[in-house]
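Subject: Predicted fold for Cadmium transporter, 306 residues

User T.R. writes:
Posting the sequence so we have a shared reference for the thread.
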Amino acid sequence: MSAPYSPSPAQPRHASRLALWSVAVAVVVLGLKYVAYLMTGSVALYSDALESIINVAAAIAAFIALRVAARPPDPGHPYGHTKAEYFSAVAEGVLIVLAALSIGREALGAILNPRELDLPYTGLLVNLGAGVLNALWATRLLRAGAELRSPALLADGRHLRTDVLTSVGVLLGVLAAKLTGVLWLDPALALFVAVNILWSGFGLVRESVGGLMDAAIDPRTEARIRQLMQAHGDGALEMHDLRTRHAGRLAFIEFHMVVPGEMSVKEAHTICDRLEDAIRAEMPESSISIHVEPQEKAKHHGVLVL
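User M.O. replies:
I've generated the structure tokens; pasting them so everyone works from the same file.
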């Protein structure tokens, strides 16, 4: 028996609005960081600004993906379009990797030909303002991404959080280069930024590909599902072969339920309804399928109700 999933339009619209705001925030941060680079001539600040170009592109990709993911199921896509969010996260990871390679090239050139920094303190303050804005918005995206179970928002929030840590390192490095007069500290730090961004990009791609490959939901959530199955499975004998996967914010849950051979279809359906209601109360964005089997199909493992 299967419980049809009826998506709530409010959550996808909210996620799309947040993604659109991310585009605006990314543009403002890019402008501030580029001004800071022009004021100082710092290669590290240039690398920070270049990563913000990636932030703009990633925010636009997330907005488009969330709009597609919000579409309801149709005859051509009976399971919905929620996996579109993973494409956004993969694209963001690839863009981050490209940005890291570009930053690394600039940094190596500046190490070979270091140059004096101009007006560093004013430029650092401008860059600091951009970092604070990024930190505030990253916190908002991570909170919303967890609440809405949105891979696109979570990927954007994690990227911005990495960007904030990078900006802090850049500010400290540029300040150290100015105070000590060791000019190679600036491009050396930019090279460190490139390596850090590269690692972040690979992590995003790996996680998103897992979603595209139908990876199971996290073990803690799966254990909670088993607890709910046992607590609300009165009347059944056992439940086994639990399988789960994620598709964006939507979780797919399926398992087999063994009932006494003499039980009526109506009684078995009542148990299924009770299980579906209990699971969906804790996981609203879920599609649940239960395969009812007679007693002789028992495997004596999984969730034993008796």
